[in-house]
Amino acid sequence: MVTLLCRRPDAGYGSGSSSSGCGAGDSEPSAEPLAQCIGITQEVRWRSGQQCCSENSLGVCMKLCGQARQWPHALQLFAELMAAGQPDVVSFSTAVSACEKGSWESAINLLDCMDRHQLLGDTVIYAACCAACGAASAWTQALQLLRPLRQATLRPNTILMNALISACGNGQRWEEAVAVLREMNETSVPTSAVSYTAAMAACDWRRALELLEELRLKQMFPTVVTYGTLLNVCRGHWEVALQLLRDMHRQKIGMNIIVLGAAITACEAKWEAALQLFGAESPTVVTSASLLNALAQDSQWELALAITRQVQEQKVDLNVIACSAVMSACEKGQQWSLALGFLRLMQDKKMEVNVVAYSAATSACEKCKHWENAVALFYELLEHQLTPDVIVCSATISAAERSSSWDVLERLLSDIKHCKVQPNVVLFNAAISAAEKAGYWQGATDLLAEMMQGSIEATSITYSAAILACSAGEQWQVALGLLEQEKEGRLVPNWVTYASAISTCENRLKHKQVPGLLMELQDLVLETEKL
């Protein structure tokens, strides 16, 4: 939008236009805040008694749109400002700030447009642009902004460098995040607890704790946000999480709901500790979801149901995350009817049921051998216009194995392809195994060939299922060919694979191949015994 804007200020930017080039692919702004922004603009126009607002009035409206996260409307107002006359640095800065939470491309385009108008930006506008890039994990673009900043002889400040660290953190680039922090120390740009906290968010738990020690050596004080960040990166390390909570208590740092939720999540591997933390405060949506996830990890479905009843009695409305966690616990406990019941409960409460919830219900049905329900859930998911992921597809195919019907499986595979799901080895293994159970050896070998064409590496499980299918179809030559192919791929066939190949050869009276296969099987057994 901004590029067009610079070339042709009189271009139309109506609210219904989709051809303005402004953030193509971004979601439409929500109606209520946008209506408020438009209402404010119209009121300013009415009070000023003119068709066009003054620059100051438009600037105020742009700022309000930015605060309401309505960046497309802010850019429409900026276009009006451009058409009215020469924009200044303040109006550009306001427009960039409005893009901070929505469109990093538009923010960078505004910087380019500003340069074409021969206006010199300041560190504030560059910091806002870095923040916009960071919000979208566009860390490369954020770092590239340092070059024009320095060419303009501007000195980076703490806010800008913190935004750069956050951008690297959001992009999972811990080395770059720490490098920016080091540059701050080397160039005498003041660091703060915010700087170190942003860098911690990019690191694993060990490096994050090292940064905590460095922060203390600099006689800075960690904040509740610092500890919340540390607890997030310590997920799965409950001992470290509990130590951090003790540190907070010793330093008299109050714990909020977000930090408590992060602490409970960090204790997923030790649900007893998570349960104890949960009992320390009144339950909330955040802490309930965190605890239920921890219980799901250890298949504690009965306790998960008890906690659900407890929080509902305390008038806490569970969200999709919490309900999906309960379903996951039921799935791991092979309680398919309870998982399905929770799915229906979510639908009755008009909750926005997501793929994770369907995945848990489908997996529960698959594990309990209710393949018809699993397949029905898959098609229900499609009817609700949700895009299935590889997990729910694999679970559905595994469930369809029990139908022993190639027709059911073939239809499923065709529909999954239409969903443009990116298949992985787990999905192919499930499909090949299903083909084997359906007694369709050709389907198994076709799937293996498709897998190779897609550059997906087969495993011993893949070959074992395909060879079993060929064995069931008495295709001894194909089975031996796959066995050789497996060995050429530096995979070690298991004893089931050899047994299938030997059985096939014996059934087809191909006894010459059997001694060699038996020797290979004997070698495999000896190697296994050594291990």
From TrEMBL:
Coiled coil: none annotated. PROSITE patterns: PPR (PS51375), PROKAR_LIPOPROTEIN (PS51257). The keyword Repressor does not apply. PPR repeats lie at residues 157-191, 354-388. Residues 8-27 are annotated as: Disordered. Keywords: Repeat. Residues 16-27 have a biased composition (Low complexity). Pfam families: PPR_3. NCBIfam families: PPR. This is Pentacotripeptide-repeat region of PRORP domain-containing protein.
